Amino acid sequence: MKVDPSGVTRAARLTALAALCLVTVVLLLPAAISVSTGGAVPAFLGEFGRWLWPAVGVMVLVAIGLAVWERVRGHETSNRTAALDRVEARVKSLLASSLAAQTQIKLGVLRQPQLSVRAEGEEISSADLEAVYDRLGHTMVLVGPVGSGRSTLLRELCLVLVERARNDPDAPIPVVVDLATWRAYGTRKPTEFTAWLLREMNRRYGISRSAGTIWLRRERVVVLIDGLDEVPRVDRALCEAELAPFASVVCSTEPIENLPSVYVEPLSRGQVLEYIASVSPRLDSLESALTPAIWERLDSPLALNLVALTHLDRQVDTIGTDFVGSFVVERLSAQRAAGPTIRALKFLARLDRPDLGAPVHMPHRRAWLPLLPTRPLWLLFVRAVPAAYAGGVCAVAFITGLQLGMWPALVFAVSASLLLILVNKLPRVFHPPGRAHGIITAALGFVAGVFAGFLVALAGLWLGGIGTPWPYAVAYVFVVVATIFLALGFVPGDAPVPWAVLIAAAPGVSMIWTGPYAVLAGMGIGFSAGVAGGVFAAAVGRVWRTVRPGQQQRMRLGRPWWIQPVVPVLGLAGVLGGLGGFGSWGTALGVALGLLVTPTAARDYVWPFDALAEVAAEGLTRPLSLGELSFRRKALLHLAQDRLLLTRVDGEYRFAHVALRDHLAKCDPTALVRATRR
User: Fold this and answer.
1) Mean of the per-residue pLDDT values for the chain?
2) Contact at 8 Å (CB) between 239 and 193?
3) Percent of the chain with pLDDT strictly greater than 70
4) Distance (Å) of CA 484 to CA 487, 489, 494, 508
5) Which one has a higher pLDDT value, 376 or 356?
6) What digits encode the pLDDT tens for the residues 90-117?
7) Rg for the chain (alpha carbons), in Å?
8) Within 13 Å, how many C-alpha atoms sit on residue 423's CB side?
9) CA gap 636, 638 in Å, rounded
10) How far apart are CA 403 and CA 409, in angstroms?
């Protein structure tokens, strides 16, 4: 068994550090403190007792030195072997899950055709990429069209460099990173490249940021970059400039300025015929069907694999030039109901997540909500949202009337309806769209609103009862101060303080007759309902702003007149729960005061309401994806994996090749379904 001397050295250093800390904390420091406070010197120390404090100081300095050494140099010696193991394991899994490897298994061939490369300015091609890499000074761009085998060559080179690093402690550690994930960490603008690279090294290979920073600074890492073509054109120049100080090998369809280019050579006719012969007799009829037009396109591993898989074990008469489309049709033709699968794959292919083209869990709504058709958005905004508002107001009004009386319930219904109009006029908050069908959707929204309203009302009753044990003066002061703060968020303008104080005077005067406890009971209901209503309005507004402008415009046409009135009408219906008792007008005042929090809760920049609105927005949009992705999402992904359309690496589903993803993203699902049926 080969022992890593750097690992043994670090183990000894850590053992010494632990021993120093243990001796200092457990033995020397307590003895020194004891002697300093008049205690006796421990017998085993003898005449060395007077050197206790200097010994403690020396031990602390040595421990600090070892800790600093560990911080500066420790990562490089300890993580190297583990990092190499993780890099090797992940790169091998990437190679094993590629379409080329899956084709080898399906066809029963030993290997793919050997690819050759040619350095810029050289006439002779070479099959030894490692030698070309060394000759060019360990920096180059692998140039070739999509499907030419660039990524496979890059990963195979990485495995060679891993073995080289194992045998030579001074050789750098190779890591393969995919630029398709660069924008996945940011929202609008690309993330700073160094931060992204360190994060990617940590996420993929377990290399800590501190170790990664040290290794990059000392050029102890070879960065092999794939996926440059996935970076949007507008960011390509910036990306190339950012990666230049770090990149060793880059895969690209085009050369990069100031980096030597190495071109991947197309497959020769002899290689194609040799490959077809190796699958004999399963592809015997394929050779005779190869026309000059097909030969011209059959020059890459991707094209060869797709043609072989499409026409395997079949009598071939003609071959279409759309290799990717024919492969997708063949893969899905054996499925009984291909329509839902095709729609789901198209939806996943259009997601702005090239690194994770088919996630088990849906990404953030900004990535997928604009891809939805207009109808589910109509159902959400025109039917479900107004019905949920109305159901919530109705339920809270009913519970308020039942527990606190009819006057508080009436004040709540009227105030909540007016606040709905006010909140909808705030900038960046929901405005009701146009017409749509869906009575069942409205009914479900109403039921959900009623259920949520009951929970909100019960929470409000609990809040209102918290102040019951408080002394009269404490409760009185709390109501006045809370009203001032609620009014500060409610009153618009630059000088809300005088208005807030004036609003707080209302409960201050009324509590002389009603007492503070009645106002507190109403404030609990009003505050709970105001927070829930404001957060819900902000959540709907966030979803609405994610929808494409064209869809927003279509939904605003023919706006139904009943959207706004339905909320107060059903709110007044809930007031019937207060029949039999009018309740206290102090409680009604408390309800109105608590509802002052609604505009504050509806704003995007007030914590913690902004965080709650974001969570609510995500939950609100999840059902919208059911038309594209069913609840049986994992079964669908597994089916696509069996059909060689998806692969799985590190627990993540990816499209087997970027060409498949792009084809599915642009396909017409209806036409594709018809083709699979034929």
Assistant:
1) 82
2) yes
3) 82
4) 5, 9, 15, 11
5) 376
6) 999 999 988 888 888 888 887 888 899 9
7) 35
8) 33
9) 5
10) 9
